[in-house]
Amino acid sequence: MVEWFEPGLVEYEYAFQLQIHLSKILKSQPLTGYLLFLEHPPTITFGYSLKGDEGKSELKVSESVLAQKGIKVFHTDRGGKATFHGPGQLIAYPVFNLGKLNLSSKKFVNKLEDVAINWLGKNGIDADRDLLYPGVWVENKKIASVGVRIEDRVSRHGIAVNLCPDLECFELIVPCGIAAREMTSFCQLTGERLKFKEAVAGLALEFAQVFGIELRVGDPNMLIIEGGSDDDQRVANAWSV
Length: 241
What we know:
241 residues; alpha/beta; eight-stranded mixed beta sheet
């Protein structure tokens, strides 16, 4: 059993702390996990592999330019390098107990990719993996990015599917450390703007089938956290520009 939530447009820092909050609760629950479907305001995040240079090697513009555009920047503890999040991008954050699912880290990531690949296929987009790079691809263009953190067999972060975000924002960075490839989106490929709730419903069904789980709507009160930043799980610092 997994409880799922759709909180809407959520600041990255809050969603980050919420995942930590839910991962702590999960350890004392009979549930297999929690699943969040949401969007972020314009935000660039850097994975832990970029901690040494603060991600500056992946930025194509200055921090002052990002500030003028209203784009926040955060260091986080997921795998991977730099990526952009913004309205029009559907993000799924599964906080799953991988022990109960009997999944290794690699199989978990593969299943996240399967969720997106299957859903896109049912919506007329022939997507697949790329042997050279992680994520989900349509030919040489990336439509979904994957980045996770697994701690004490509990997952955080997840997969971001480009429904219809501002793709020009990806040009401000080296997306996922891959300079020679472009990003794409559902609306760019199909010419259609899919409603967010419709996409959530479809992806929720794929999560249930791919992971072999039962989903039920969670109590919204679970999404209320207090106390500000919490670094007791060795979480990387976060800041905005």
